[in-house]
Amino acid sequence: MAGPTEYLPKTFRPRVSTYWWLGRWSYLKFILRELSSIFIAWFVILTLLQISALKRGPADYVQLQEWLRRPILVALNALSLFFVVFHTVTWFNLAPKAMSIRVRGKPVSNLLITAPNYLAWLAISAAVAWLLLRG
Amino acid sequence: MADRITLKVTRYDPGRDHEPGFQTYEVPLRKDWVVLDALNYVKDKVDGSLSFRWSCRMGICGSCGMMVNGEPKLTCATFVSEYMPGPVSVEPLKHFPILRDLIVDISDFLEKLTKVKPWLIREEERRVVDGEYLQTPEQADTFRQFSMCINCLLCYAACPVYGLDPLFTGPAAIALAQRYNTDSRDQGTNERLDILSQHDGIWGCTFVGDCTRVCPKHVDPAGAIQQYKLTAAKEWIKSLLMPWGGR
Amino acid sequence: MGKRSNEPFLWLLFSAGGMLAAILIPIHVFLFGLAFPLGWLHGPSYQSLLELLKQPLTRLYFFVLCTLSLFHWAHRFRYTLYDGLQIKHLDELINTFCYGGAALGTVLAAYLLWRIP
Ligand code: SF4
Ligand code: FES
């Protein structure tokens, strides 16, 4: 930007504060939604740890289970559960906005897109649980 | 109901002040007064040097946008009595350079708006004698929502990404690009995509969604941007599968 | 075609990962992170888990889930660092960290999953 001239007067440029995301509830919700990605990454790490323990043998696997019973890990996983569910809910609620599906020229109501997502979530979660618990 | 309320208004004189400050005014509290009425009262009766923009007083011209108690609002459509018992702060729209008092410099937006070519683009213009481009009501419905934009820029003031990265094209300009993309008479989608699929175009958007929340005309710019991303991604796949397809 | 970035590709990975994560991860975190280790539910035995993991389909499932989830994380975390901390000028470092991390995780997942005894 050039300096002030007769036609381009001097202006004041405010700066965005580093803590802008604390300033408004919708901003805070946004930043929490974005931070949920950290817990998704943590899930991947946890899964890879489990797989590698499984690979190394029963003793290692039992050890990992014991490690997971430590209060700090339980707390971390409880927090993770909260954040991954938060991710699911926000993801499903925003999905219809990006799609804007029209049937015969009329926009389809958001509920018609969101509801099947939730149903699929429940059904698939139940299927995963059944696969693991039946034996 | 108290009969007076305090306004805290931003004052900035570029010739004198280093940075903006607040000045307070006491104004009568009338049930039917909007914030703009209170500002006009100050200008007429108390302090004629207070500067702000307005025109239509009915939510159509889009020039009276300001931050009222920290929220971007059309001051002609925001009742003072909502902020009882006060004080009410009135500041210039966030994220724009302040020219004077409540007036901001919006040239950056105007430049961006022209860049996205918000007009009908035709590969070949039809001659006037050949008549108009026909459109069914359903086709007009697809873009009606986006065409409601009054360029009030409340959405820019709500968008943290624009505040942090002034290169970002921003909500209203993208929504208006989408308005023409979805117009059945338009053939300029690809031309616009070339501009908007650059990094600063649509990809800077992280879907905070506050633009949609504050828009007084229910334009839903956040939705428009996500739809645009989807279109850009589809085009990208197409160009990957058919590199010879030209566009 | 003009200069277009690889953003569409990264965004597609982000979206696919986000969808998959939304549907699958909560139940996994609940079962493997809490319910099984804490004994709320009786999880599968070591042997049956190992058997399950030997199925090619299970391996593929975990590979895709881990990879796409990581690229989902990379995309979001990159922008959180840009905007939340206002350090966009460090974008090369951030990109390397995020996408490099996701790529590393992908390689690690492939290595672990396909070298099961
Ligand atoms: S999209 Fe809405 S908030 Fe943004 S300029 Fe247009 S009318 Fe104003
Ligand atoms: S004065 Fe025109 S929109 Fe408020």
Shape of chain C: elongated
**Largest beta sheet: strand ordering of chain A:** 1-2
Class from secondary-structure proportions of chain C: mainly alpha
Overall mean pLDDT score of chain A? 87
Give the proportion of residues in helices of chain C. over 70%
- Global mean pLDDT of chain C: 88
CATH homologous superfamily identity of chain C? Fumarate reductase/succinate dehydrogenase, transmembrane subunit
Largest sheet of chain A: 2 strands, antiparallel
- Helix and strand string of chain A, N-terminal first? HHHEEH
Bound molecules: iron/sulfur cluster, FE2/S2 (inorganic) cluster
Might you state the CATH topology name of chain C?
Answer: 3 helical TM bundles of succinate and fumarate reductases
Share of β-strand residues of chain A: under 5%
What is the helical fraction of chain A, as a range of percent? over 70%
Can you put this structure into words, describing what you see?
The complex is a heterotrimer of chains A (135), B (247) and C (117). Helix content of chain A is 71%, strand content 3%. Chain A is mainly α and 135 residues long. Chain A has one domain: Up-down Bundle (3 helical TM bundles of succinate and fumarate reductases), CATH 1.20.1300.10. In chain A, a hairpin with a 2-residue loop joins strand 1 (102-103) and strand 2 (106-107). Helix content of chain B is 37%, strand content 13%. Chain B is built from ten helices and seven strands. Chain B has helices spanning 35-46, 107-115, 137-147, 154-158, 160-164, 171-181, 189-196, 199-203, 210-214, 221-241; strands at residues 4-11, 21-28, 65-68, 71-74, 88-91, 98-100, 103-104. Chain B has a five-stranded mixed beta sheet. With 117 residues, chain C is mostly helical. Chain C is built from four helices and no strands. The chains are: A mainly alpha (135), B alpha+beta (247), C mainly alpha (117). Chains in contact: A-B, A-C, B-C. At the A-C interface, helix 1, helix 2, helix 3 and helix 4 of A face helix 1, helix 2, helix 3 and helix 4 of C. The complex binds iron/sulfur cluster (SF4) and FE2/S2 (inorganic) cluster (FES).
